[in-house]
Design a protein that fits this description.
420 residues; alpha/beta; 2 domains; 6-stranded mixed sheet; 56% helix; globular; disordered N terminus
Length: 420
Amino acid sequence: MSLSKTQKSDPSIIKIKQGLPQQLGSHHVPDKLRGYLKQLDRLLARLLSMSRGWIVSVEVLDDVAAVGPDGETIAEQDKSTYDGNPVSDRALELWKTLSNWVDSVASGSLDVTKTEFVLYISIQKSGTIVNNLDAAKTIEDAKKAILEAKQELWGLGPTYTKKAEVADTIRPFVDNFLNADVEITSKIILNFNLIFGIGDSESELLLMMGTYTTVPPDIALVVLAGGAGWVHLQVMKKLDARTPATINVDAFKDHLHHLARKHDVSTILRTYAPDLPQSIIGEHLQVKPYIRQLELIDCDDGYKLNAISNYFKASYDRTEWTDRGEMDEETIEDFEQELIYHWSNIRLQSYSITGSPIVVGRWIYGKCGQFRSDLGGLRPPPHFIPGSFHMLSNEMMVGWHPDYKNSMIVQECEVPDGNS
């Protein structure tokens, strides 16, 4: 039944609206609701970032999880916070997370050899123990970090004189993790990755839209909202049917593409590039300057593999388009000059950024990753712009580290002869 005009302007409703608080006090913060909505945000983020063929889920294997075609898995715990620190040395959230992962591996739910264990915090936080765990790059590093955590909480063995001082709230979780087989826990920590949000869900997701899609900035928000609504409905359908809340990345990307086409009538340039051949990954990781440029700003292997894929596909498409007469070399060269001009402006803006050269370099790299432009009046596929930036980086025509040219020379001098 529809409302009458009288009902729509009911003064009692107006009074209620006027009486609503404009800002929530600390005792009103709906933590459970915020935590649930953050999980949906992270589900959406994983759907945006994962490749086709993956399945993403919420509250199945973990808070959010993703499973690839070959069984590779990302198990993600999500922590949303305002003023607290869920990764402080004695934080309940940290030790419950580590304990849950031990239980999941022990039960067979997660294969420790195929799983990346991710802890996402909505804003930047730190703790000595979690930082040491996150920094572990080898099994030996992982075992050392676990031992240091044990000594911090329990004291030196074998007496562990501080063990009785561990708070009751965290004791069962601390015990479960630290008493577990170190051969298992060290593998969990080796595959552990601590990541942070920026404290603004909308901006965070829009940045991911710019990184992983070709959706133009002027319609990105409306497409994102449509995608988020679709994800919410898919989750509710699964929950109502009492089935695991899983979403196929292919279905999500198809829906997002439909939304983008609905709101943007421009034509997307066709890609001919095949999937990245495994045979070239090792070669590029070892010798390509654009990979070494990423290493200057401490990019991890995930970023490097994504860069290799974009570089390969952009190079492949460039050749195909010119060979097929779909694009001339002059147009592509003009496009490269546009990229260099954009990079130069970003580099100029970076002088106002406060932070280490690595922080500034990552900012430059991230800003260039958000650049969008047409190529000869057509919208290029998502890999072409980042791939073209990497091609320019490979020729040292652009760079991410503020002093990338000199740093590359220093890095080259430091490389052992066997890897040069």
